[in-house]
Amino acid sequence: MARPFNLEISESAEYLSKSLSKARTSMEKERLLLLWWIKTGQVTQHQQLSQRLGRDGSTVTRWLQKYRQGGLGKLLEVKTSPGATPKITPQMRSQLEEKLESPQGFGSYGEIVEWLKQEFLVKVKYKTVYRLV
After folding, report:
1. Radius of gyration of the CA atoms of the chain, in A
2. Model-level pTM?
3. pLDDT tens digits for 76-105?
4. 3-state secondary structure 13-57
């Protein structure tokens, strides 16, 4: 026999219900539904939750741990990858802005690409310079 939940949900059932109706992504809906079922007493066992959600028990356990650690905010947190580090540093950018504001300036984006290569030994694509400038 499965043991009952040992989880205190701080949000009210009404709040969870409203949040559920306003949820934009399926990820939010799933996780809010999980809390709402527990709060309203519709689900009393871990196994019931995983069956209703169609998720593995370990996934449900991970979600519940997130909620225990940081509440609703932590549970609904969406992680994003940091992306690549920019090739053009803030120092390089400020020098480029100064050069662009000077009377000589640049005649083309290609000249900027060459200038960056000569000044900073950085190979930057034409497209990148076009977007930046």
Report:
1. 26
2. 0.62
3. 998 888 888 888 888 999 999 998 888 888
4. HHHHHHHHHHCCCHHHHHHHHHHHHHHHCCCCEHHHHHHHHCCCH
